[in-house]
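Quick question, first post here. What does this chain look like in 3D?
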Amino acid sequence: MAVQTFELIDYEVRDRTAWITINNAERMNALSIGVVNGLYDAFTEFSNDDDALVAILIGGGGRAFCAGADLVAMTQRDQTEGQGAPAPTRPGLEALSECPKPIIAAIDGYALAGGMQLSSRCDIRIATEKSRVGMPEVRRSLVAVGMVDTAERFVPRGEAMWILLTADHMTAERAYDIGFLQALVPDRDALIAEATRVADEIKKNAPLAVQAVKRTIVHTSHMSPLDAIHYRNALNEKVEQSEDRMEGPKAFAEKRDPVWKMR
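> Answer (accepted):
Ran it through. Tokens below.
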């Protein structure tokens, strides 16, 4: 498939994996209006693209995955439109949160502030050893709204407090040790190879079942146990009634690879 460009985001599907690349390298892939709008368009495309089963999100340039909000543009809006004036963007980060399919963050370099939040909207995070993560908002008198109420989903409370209150950068090794990152690799080539390998493992599985598992994990974390059971059972019922549910055991019995039809 040819590369599609959504403002500052490239979208390309190769072997049923969507490669989504942030192309704002001169600003360390900051979340400019063009980047946020492009993320919205790219992940909307991915969510609706039957040819794509898993996405890999990566920053272009090699210096940063994403360095957070575009503070230069924020300052200009404060001065011309009034303090705290919101950027006229579509809900780019929310498009990741609402995406039903698996997303892998391939982090090479800095993932700071909104960039760390962006990576947290992904399901699996892989990083190069040189990478750094952190939430430095409080050093600019900003509040990390997108992480304050969600950080404990990824790391223990003490680690979340350390990240949010110190505003310090964390090494990739430390982020891996506390569970924020799922894998570390030595360099960008290894990052692309490992992200591809993980995507290939996911693609072996039944897409409807994979999406049901993701929805259950994402949407039941704040539910009561009873509500979570009802939600899970409703999703499971749809999978149980699918053609793929028959194909999985049948392929095992016939000692062959399953052929998923996503229905």
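The first helix runs from residue 33 to 48.
The chain has a mean pLDDT of 89.
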